[in-house]
Amino acid sequence: MATTIEKPDLKSRAQAQLRPRPFKAKDLLNQVVIQGLAVAPDGESVVYVRRTVQDNKYARRLWRVPFKGGRPEQLTSAKSNDTRPRFSPDGRTLLFISDRSGKPQVWVMPLLGGEPRQLTDLPNGAGAAEWSPDGKRVLLLAGSGEKRFLVGSSDDPIARRIRDYTWKIDGGGYRDELTSVWITDLEGGKAARITAPAYDVSGACWSPDGKHIAFIADLRKEAALMDYSQLWSLPSRPGKDQPLPMASVAGAVFNTAWAPGDHAAFLGTSEPQSPGWSNINLYLTDGKATHQLGAGRDLDIWNTTYGDFIDNEQFSPQLCWIDQQHVAVLVAHRGASHPYSFGADGSVTALAEEDVVCNAIAAGGGRVAVVASGDGPADVYAVEDGKLRRLSDDGSKWFGPFHRRVQRIEVPHPEGHNVDAWLLRADGEARKAPLIVAVHGGPNLSYGPTPWLEMSALAGAGFHVIWSNPRGSTGYGQAYARAIAGRWGDKDASDIMRVADWAVEQGLTDKDRRGVFGLSYGGFMTNWLLGHHPGAFKAAVSENPVTDMLAQFASSDFGIQIGSGAIGVDQPWDHLAEYLERSPYTKIHLNESPLLLLQAEQDLRCPPGQTEMVFTILRSLGREVEMVRYPNESHVMLMIGRPDRRVDRIERIVGWFEKHLGS
Q1: Comparing C-alpha atoms, which of 202, 319, 209 is closest to residue 260?
Q2: Strand partners, 337
Q3: Cβ atoms within 10 A of the Cβ of 29, count?
Q4: What are the residue ranges spanned by the domains of the chain?
Q5: Which of 231, 259, 387, 597 has the fewest Cβ atoms surrounding its Cβ within 10 A?
Q6: 171 closest CA partner among 127, 205, 120
Q7: How many CB atoms lie within 10 A of CB 196?
Q8: CA-to-CA separations, 508 to 412, 423, 490, 574, in angstroms, rounded
Q9: Rounded Cα–Cα distance for residues 298 and 301 (Å)
């Protein structure tokens, strides 16, 4: 039975109109995305980042809104990217990262009046910054300043000499410099590096007394093959001290927060090699003993639902201290993500459980705020009394004229489980229409109630759109996420086909008017379904897919892990048959449905060769296939790609299905 999501308090006032306008690809140029936020130490205000499009580029500016509610005010106005706001301990000054002077640097701005002041001038910029507890120093994450691979000058190198498997990263390119922890004084002076350049630091925080730094890194020699970071500590004053182990888990550590708590809290996995299906857990440590909070509850403690309604910065596990005894986190749950409080005494409390996607969380003065989206784009909300109270309408207001109601559905499967799905009807009506089945990436991620912009564009063009969380998705317990480990294309494909067949049974569409599209693992599944279920879909769009598991092993930035997760083995020379069996290209010759292939040319996660393999096979057979390549774009172009390319992408998706399915 289908149930409709009704969340009037999480929608713009403009959404009450009876006939929404069709969303067109170029409407993306008016998109407003709300991302990272900070709550003042006294809990009286919230600062957040508001992303807009200007002159075919993104502008990110800081805004502030009272926690009790009121009109938001703009704090920064430079034509730049201002991100990662942090209140000083006394609440009088704001620290943030800005590229207004060129490379991203740390800036500070008095909140009682005055212009922002640049604090750092690091050669390659800074990626993060945090106040010391006394407000006199700043911790930085920035490049080490030492090149690992270059032979010759950095401006015009002769070559790159590479010995590490972890030599590249999607969205970042060559990892010529690893990230280090730096410390600088608020009143100026040269920043000092306190961690060695030989290992990469992915996160760091201050101790409550400011005398030590906790940081996340993998100091093993084996990190050259694959990073599995743990928690370490160092004195915060530069010296010759060696890092001391603070806490370790069987998998990896992803984020940490220390002050003001007496213990450091951190998020990590307990499974060796940290497979994608493993839950992210919350731990406390005093540097000697470590224990898990909420053990036995089978919770995945981060937001696993993603899309073009968030910015790339938000897509990582988050945590913050509410007070000295309670940590606030986000917990994935059936496509949603909820704010939770975990107590040092073992208590676990859901702070709000509305059917929304919370993708950022912050706390201050005992108060908690989130960035959340329902069946429309995200905004800032106060978390209080078990509910979310809207503080901004920047994110959703722009989308109000296009808003259409999303239906939540539970599709029964013959094997006894239900598959969660969401339906966006063509023109918001119940008539029969062509159906597009969307498949999310990961596979250990999830869809939720918030539609991606191409879904809205397709619905406005006369298509029903349905998206689901088949087995392998996260937010349903670790066993559900693990169900497809080593067997991509079996149980997950069965669930997706069941959703597609259910739509026909319900009279939503005809069997010969169904299309499918997906990105990344969703692209894998799109090609897999075309080859293993030929004729089930009459048209398809595949974006940045995995199609050749052996080439993926050799050329992807995380190829070893992807191969292990998809096939269950990580040494293809001993398992060539298994690698071929899980490669969609080996069956794609059976497909006769028109296929559009979208590929980001700088994608290091699913490199262009994956798309080229399928294109070459189908084109050599004379089949209807088209490849579109986007220069200078990475794997998640749908979120952060150049705006005109994102517009082109949506236009091509809609146009392909209009051409081959009608509407």
Answers
A1: 209
A2: 332, 357
A3: 14
A4: 34-124, 144-293, 320-403, 404-661
A5: 387
A6: 127
A7: 17
A8: 16, 10, 26, 46
A9: 9
Angle between helices 491-505 and 521-532 (to 10 degrees): 70
Distance from C-alpha of 109 to C-alpha of 340, rounded to nearest angstrom: 31
Structure tokens at 71: 């009109």
Lowest mean pLDDT among 311-315, 594-598, 636-640: 311-315
Dist CA 534 CA 544 (whole Å) = 21
**Sheet of 280-285, strand order:** 253-257, 264-269, 280-285, 290-293
Sheet (strand 73-74) strand order: 33-39, 45-54, 57-66, 73-74
Q: 152 to each of 123, 137, 335, 507, 536, how far by Cα in Å?
A: 18, 36, 50, 66, 55
Give the number of other Cβ atoms within 10 Å of residue 9's Cβ.
12
CATH architecture of the domain with range 404-661: 3-Layer(aba) Sandwich (3.40)
Coil, strand or helix: which one is 562? helix
DSSP 582: T
Residues in the chain: 663
Q: Which of 587, 609, 479 lies closest to 525, judged by CA?
A: 587
Instruction: Tell me the residue ranges of DSSP E strands in 385-480.
Output: 387-390, 406-412, 418-424, 435-439, 464-468
User: What is the C-alpha separation between 562 and 546, in angstroms, rounded?
Assistant: 9
Average pLDDT over residues 411-422: 98
Read off the pTM: 0.95
Tell me the two tokens of residue 621. 């057979």
Whether 573 has a pLDDT exceeding 70, the answer reads: yes
What whole-number distance in Å separates Cα of residue 20 and Cα of residue 401? Answer: 5
How much is the pLDDT for 18? 63
Query: How would you classify the pairing of strands 464-468 and 435-439?
Result: parallel
Rounded to whole angstroms, how far apart are CA atoms 179 and 127? 9
pLDDT value at 454 more than 90: yes
Residue 30 Cα distances to 26, 33, 396, 455, 637, angstroms:
8, 10, 11, 17, 17
| Reduced 3-state DSSP string for 246-267 | EECCCCCEEEEECCCCCCEEEE
Report d(CA 403, CA 396) in Å as an integer.
9
Q: Are strands 514-519 and 435-439 parallel, antiparallel or unpaired?
A: parallel
| pLDDT given for residue 259 in this prediction | 82
Closest of 55, 106, 111 to residue 82, by C-alpha: 106
